[in-house]
Amino acid sequence: MTTSCARAALLVCPASGLGRAARMAGTAAEALRGAVGKLDPLVADSAKGTAELAAAAVRDGVDVLVVLGGDGGVHHALQACAGSDTALAVVPAGTGNDFAAALGLPADPMAALSSVVGALRDGRRRRVDLGRISRATWFGTVLCAGFDSAVNERANAMSWPRGPRRYDIAIVRELARLRPQPLVLGTDEGKAELEATLVAVGNTTSYGGGIPICPDAETADGYLDVTVVREMSRRELVRMLPTLRTGRHVEHPAVTTLRARRVLLGGDNDWIAYADGERQTVLPITVECVPAALTVVTPA
């Protein structure tokens, strides 16, 4: 059988999805071998290991890097694949799979695997935009700072419970200490200073496992979508949170949305930026859209 991909690497993030990626690694490798000329299996033992294996595979010239994991694994793979000749494929097996969803892949890992295998056989690829932080770090989905990044910080510091429940508890605890902070927001159109609860910069619509914080974002339009939640009381935020799941939060009078090619985030605050669910750095930062920075393997 002829294939459109001479050589691929399967990067397994075994801890993703509370072990889901490890459990389906053998099945994924067997399925992928039928769609590529040669498959190199790679198993990461840590976030650092994921990044190192991805970088080594790209340096070695693989045609496609297949990530079996969640948004964290994808984030590390982006640092290697962006701007290279290596295409990225994703089999979603993590807790949050927002990048895979943005590519149109099914949420079910086995269905997504079947879709990726078909796309590899047919040679289906396209270019998508990426976000870049301070000209250094790439991200595929959403960068956030403020309340939502504080929730991430708290959840990451908790050893119990495991899974999504940990984030529910982190939200409740962060609500108790909620206070708006000064934000400087600069875009192509100018600069604004305001009191804000959170800010999100989206290359895609969603973060946190399907929350469409930037509901109109597109992956290949050359722009980043920005959602700002201005000063808001604890009670108002609690009432607004359920609308995040539907994207109707943008109708709230305290929410502003805009689009820009380049965004500056700063101000006299203690906010830490997260991107693709991964901790980045404290503000200030600059964020830019880099059009067509990545080749991806996508379903029909």
From TrEMBL:
<feature type="signal peptide">
    <location>
        <begin position="1"/>
        <end position="21"/>
    </location>
</feature>
<dbReference type="Pfam" id="PF19279">
    <property type="entry name" value="YegS_C"/>
</dbReference>
<keyword id="KW-0594">Phospholipid biosynthesis</keyword>
<keyword id="KW-0460">Magnesium</keyword>
<feature type="domain" description="DAGKc">
    <location>
        <begin position="3"/>
        <end position="137"/>
    </location>
</feature>
<keyword id="KW-0808">Transferase</keyword>
<dbReference type="GO" id="GO:0005886">
    <property type="term" value="C:plasma membrane"/>
</dbReference>
<dbReference type="InterPro" id="IPR017438">
    <property type="entry name" value="ATP-NAD_kinase_N"/>
</dbReference>
<keyword id="KW-0479">Metal-binding</keyword>
<protein>
    <submittedName>
        <fullName>Sphingosine kinase</fullName>
    </submittedName>
</protein>
<dbReference type="GO" id="GO:0008654">
    <property type="term" value="P:phospholipid biosynthetic process"/>
</dbReference>
<dbReference type="GO" id="GO:0005524">
    <property type="term" value="F:ATP binding"/>
</dbReference>
<keyword id="KW-0444">Lipid biosynthesis</keyword>
<keyword id="KW-1208">Phospholipid metabolism</keyword>
<dbReference type="InterPro" id="IPR045540">
    <property type="entry name" value="YegS/DAGK_C"/>
</dbReference>
<keyword id="KW-0547">Nucleotide-binding</keyword>
<dbReference type="InterPro" id="IPR005218">
    <property type="entry name" value="Diacylglycerol/lipid_kinase"/>
</dbReference>
<dbReference type="InterPro" id="IPR050187">
    <property type="entry name" value="Lipid_Phosphate_FormReg"/>
</dbReference>
<comment type="similarity">
    <text>Belongs to the diacylglycerol/lipid kinase family.</text>
</comment>
<keyword id="KW-0067">ATP-binding</keyword>
<dbReference type="InterPro" id="IPR001206">
    <property type="entry name" value="Diacylglycerol_kinase_cat_dom"/>
</dbReference>
<dbReference type="InterPro" id="IPR016064">
    <property type="entry name" value="NAD/diacylglycerol_kinase_sf"/>
</dbReference>
<keyword id="KW-0732">Signal</keyword>
<dbReference type="Pfam" id="PF00781">
    <property type="entry name" value="DAGK_cat"/>
</dbReference>
<dbReference type="GO" id="GO:0004143">
    <property type="term" value="F:ATP-dependent diacylglycerol kinase activity"/>
</dbReference>
<keyword id="KW-0443">Lipid metabolism</keyword>
<keyword id="KW-0418">Kinase</keyword>
<dbReference type="GO" id="GO:0046872">
    <property type="term" value="F:metal ion binding"/>
</dbReference>
